[in-house]
Amino acid sequence: xxxxxxxxxxxxxxxxxYDLLVxxxxxxxxxxxxxxxxxxxxxxxxxxxxxxxVLLGGVLLAVGLGLPCVYFATFFHSVRxxxxxxxxxxGRTVYRLTLPEKGDCLRVTDGKxxxxxxxxTVFHAYRDKRAVYLYITAARAFILxxxxxxxxxxxxxWALLTARLPAEKRTE
Length: 172
Known about the structure:
Elements: E1 2-7, H1 9-23, H2 28-46, H3 53-85, E2 92-98, E3 105-109, E4 114-118, E5 124-127, E6 131-135, E7 141-145, H4 154-164, E8 170-171
Parallel strand pairs: 5-8
Antiparallel strand pairs: 1-2, 2-3, 3-4, 5-6, 6-7
């Protein structure tokens, strides 16, 4: 199966959110930070008779909720800037991925370079509603949007990956 991957800003943004929130689970630290500071602020508000406790509670709550908001706002802004830098506004063909029915390697070419990756070195494959994210390493993935599948269906693509990758390297 050969997939000519054309990325749009929307597809890239969806992958970036998936990568940060699901694959890397980077939502945990800001959420725990907010919960901890909110709990501390609640204790301060509960001790409102003590001089300065309400002010300290307000500061703790502002910091506890403000920093995670800044974290996510910065992330969303950086994704928007990266999509603009990659010129994905109207969609652009980025690479061509060849997933052979038989053979040891999958092949990726971007027009300038070609790389081959043995199937046994693939880190993980995740299936989303609109794409498959094929991680070659924990930090590097190929986005395979379903609307780029010219000669096949999402079910055929997933069946091919199921045949090539063990169950612990696939998440549907």
